[in-house]
User: Which sequence fits this backbone?
């Protein structure tokens, strides 16, 4: 569990919570965690924000991505986004092949870090997005789905390129998506702020450029203020529209 407030990463083991790492320098918070169980590493995005203890205005716009070895907590790498700032690396996803996809909220782009690489590579030019959130790799591996909290859902070629809007039915608002994860046939999306907080199931056309149908799985006070969603490999979720992992 990461803490924006303290900049720490905590780990629960043997029935209790304990500090595991402090990837963020004083005045910076720890944001997203990207677990790569196959390679036994954990990626952490950090950045300076006013909500963090010890924040200094002079540090605003500084951000980095760190990689730790799970077995002993050793720091393996610290990478900063290329180009002039400001930057704020936030939400991320790790593909089955171990590529890290991380959004830059202030830079308006999404970076990729492939296994063995020593630098972050932009998938789209700076400020291609207004407010990029959690990226997700499409089921066929050819596209990265990027929710822009302000503008809606976009698809970007996995190798990089111009973002294309993902068309949606007239009764669906795709702005306000914060968390996103791929499931068979489409996506699970967490929306907040723009609509009543909800968890939405989206079905995509084979080319991934159009939402063919959608349904709300949960909404309202029971969800409080949701931001992200993850899948458990040991669970299957059943709803009125079918079963998905």
Assistant:
């Amino acid at each position: 569990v990461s803490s924006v407030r303290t900049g720490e990463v905590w780990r629960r083991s043997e029935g209790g919570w304990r500090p595991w790492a402090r990837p963020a320098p004083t005045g910076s918070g720890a944001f997203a965690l990207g677990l790569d169980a196959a390679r036994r590493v954990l990626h952490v995005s950090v950045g300076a924000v006013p909500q963090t203890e010890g924040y200094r205005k002079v540090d605003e716009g500084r951000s980095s991505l760190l990689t730790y070895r799970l077995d002993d907590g050793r720091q393996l790498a610290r990478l900063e986004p290329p180009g002039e700032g400001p930057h704020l690396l936030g939400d991320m996803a790790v593909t089955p092949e171990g590529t890290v996809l991380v959004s830059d909220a202030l830079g308006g782009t999404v970076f990729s870090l492939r296994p063995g690489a020593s630098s972050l590579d932009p998938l789209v030019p700076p400020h291609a997005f207004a407010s990029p959130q959690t990226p997700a790799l499409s089921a066929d591996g050819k596209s990265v789905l990027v929710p822009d909290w302000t503008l809606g859902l976009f698809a970007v070629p996995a190798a990089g390129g111009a973002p294309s809007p993902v068309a949606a039915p007239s009764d669906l608002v795709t702005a306000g998506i914060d968390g996103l994860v791929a499931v068979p046939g489409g996506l699970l999306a967490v929306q907040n702020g723009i609509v009543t907080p909800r968890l939405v199931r989206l079905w995509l056309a084979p080319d991934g450029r159009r939402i063919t149908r959608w349904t709300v799985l949960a909404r309202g006070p029971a969800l409080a203020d949701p931001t992200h969603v993850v899948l458990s490999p040991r669970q299957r979720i059943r709803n009125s529209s079918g079963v998905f992992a």
